[in-house]
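Summary for the steering committee. The consortium agreed at its last meeting that each partner would contribute one worked example illustrating the joint modelling workflow. Our contribution is presented below. We chose a case with several input lines so that the handling of multiple components could be demonstrated. No manual editing was applied between input and output; the record is shown as generated.
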Amino acid sequence: MIQSNEAGWNFNNSYARLPDPFFEKVEPDPVIEPELVLFNKSLAESLGLDSKKLESREGADVFAGNEIPEGAFPIAQAYAGHQFGNFTMLGDGRAVLLGEQMTPSGERFDIQLKGSGRTPFSRGGDGRATLGPMLREYIISESIHALGIPTNRSLAVVTTGESVLRENELPGAVLTRVAPSHLRIGTFEYAAQWGGEEAIKTLADYAIKRHYPELQEKEDRYVKLFEEVIDRQAALIAKWQLVGFIHGVMNTDNMTISGETIDYGPCAFMNEYNPATVFSSIDVQGRYAYQNQPPIGQWNLARFGETLLPLFHENQEQAVELAQNAHSKYEELYRSHWLEGMRKKLGFQNEAAQDEPLIDDLLSIMKKHEADFTNTFRALSMDKPEDTPMNDTPEFKNWYNQWQARLDRQEALKTSSYERMKQSNPAVIPRNHLVEGALEAAVKDRDYSVMERLLEVLAEPYAYSSKHEEYTKLPPACDRPYRTFCGT
Ligand code: AMP
Ligand code: MG
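What follows is the complete predicted structure of the assembly.
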């Protein structure tokens, strides 16, 4: 058994001090033969953990749930959620929160094992996860982090030595996730449904203390909480849009109060720019298509606001008015976050009236010519318009001249604008064919070298290194239409 002080574990489990209904005490189910296949050393170090001690058989035991580090208090969290628009009771059906690690700098992070066995919330499920989707979540969440987008992180993947029955028998795995918390809109929906006003107040106070401590003394702190979450989610979703990330399953249980990306299931990055892009095999209506992410965010936030109504005002009408006021600001907030990001992507270092139509024009030309989203902005950042297949079209040429004229009109030197563009336009993203290639080598051949190389490249998305050139290539046409599946 690892001594917590040796490996650096330093748990302080505030969520488990909430009243009972918010969680169930549960132990992870031990697995037959844990083997550590991915380990995030730099993340471990930043959490105050001893990576040398953990990159070992002992570490594999902890990350598989076979050994509980000292100070941990494993629980499954209760939550509900609107899934594809329908309210459902959920909860951690295959995840266990080991506890909250306090880092040397005093930050608090949930350490959660995903795929660690059945819990009281498992319903018909087996509580397990398979290797491919856990590796996929590791790659994409770490890439999202490197892109500068708030997200939960991935600390480790262990294989369990057990097989998991899906359509076929697949190798089992456990992913260790790290997040500022796992408070979801669905956690509030759960409180509202089963605990009433007292439970909502307890949870809202907890969320404020954990994520928005500056609001604690404010008289209207619950309305402020709502406003802050609206702003953080608007900012988050704008960031997704700006890199072409499609979450795929924006149910309210997959939307955090902290404003971080969470629950990577059927997510993927768009290749050619098409606002209607959907990857998830179960999203037949396109509810969570690229273009729907911003409005769905707003819809989800309305569900959040509804749970908080009793805290806004004792008079229901006034409570609703306060909620609607806050909620109606979402669109403007989203648009301004998006516009700010788009200006950066195009090298605008000030604001000009014609920026919006210029941006919209580029997007519609890209759509018409099915231009690759990432590579178009990459080509512009490198001042290589000839690298985009649109370059020979009169409409793009016309747009390009207008854009150049816009850059000339600002005081900043063009070279500095291009440099700044490179900080906002990733040269490399986890393209679907790259991720699939890495997963296939790992799962089929137990060869992790492809994935390790990919992770290294994805850790520097803005490096524009010639060494990364091959990772910017487009997939063969047979890769489309790409389909993703829920994290089973
Ligand atoms: P997700 O699609 O990962 O957001 O999961 C939705 C809900 O289904 C959550 O309550 C999960 O805990 C639960 N769930 C997903 N897969 C399993 C499984 N294999 N066993 C038990 N519960 C699961
Ligand atoms: Mg989920």
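Residues 253-254, 263 surround magnesium ion (ligand 2) (CB under 6 Å). The first helix runs from residue 4 to 7.
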